[in-house]
């Protein structure tokens, strides 16, 4: 099964890292969905909700205020000034 390697990072710490099947983030031009095999992209993010569907475990939802998203070779990195989790378990 194809999967994404995802890192969700706030300015001061890593919030979550792991394998996922889908990521949805609030890009400046509208909501952006990322699945395995997505073309490389760099996008500016606006305030809104990020949703990550892990390969196993409960979905992760959090709000961000701004940041950017990078996708390259099934690796997704979301960097935000701040992240507040709504649901899911942060990386310890």
UniProtKB/TrEMBL annotation:
GO terms for molecular function: ATP binding; proton-transporting ATP synthase activity, rotational mechanism. It is a peripheral membrane protein. SUPFAM superfamilies: Epsilon subunit of F1F0-ATP synthase N-terminal domain. InterPro entries: ATP_synth_F1_dsu/esu (IPR001469), ATP_synth_F1_dsu/esu_N (IPR020546), ATPsynth_dsu/esu_N (IPR036771). PANTHER family: ATP SYNTHASE DELTA/EPSILON CHAIN, ATP SYNTHASE EPSILON CHAIN, CHLOROPLASTIC. F-type ATPases have 2 components, CF(1) - the catalytic core - and CF(0) - the membrane proton channel. CF(1) has five subunits: alpha(3), beta(3), gamma(1), delta(1), epsilon(1). CF(0) has three main subunits: a, b and c. This is ATP synthase epsilon chain. The lineage of its organism: Bacteria, Bacillati, Actinomycetota, Actinomycetes, Micrococcales. The gene is atpC.
């Amino acid at each position: 099964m194809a999967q994404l390697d995802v890192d969700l990072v706030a300015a001061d710490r890593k919030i979550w890292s792991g394998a996922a099947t889908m990521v949805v983030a609030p890009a400046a031009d509208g909501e952006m969905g990322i699945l395995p095999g997505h073309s490389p992209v760099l996008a500016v993010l606006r305030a809104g909700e990020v949703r990550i569907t892990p390969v196993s475990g409960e979905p992760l939802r959090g709000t961000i205020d701004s940041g950017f998203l990078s996708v390259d070779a099934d690796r997704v990195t979301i960097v935000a000034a701040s992240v507040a989790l709504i649901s899911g378990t942060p990386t310890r």
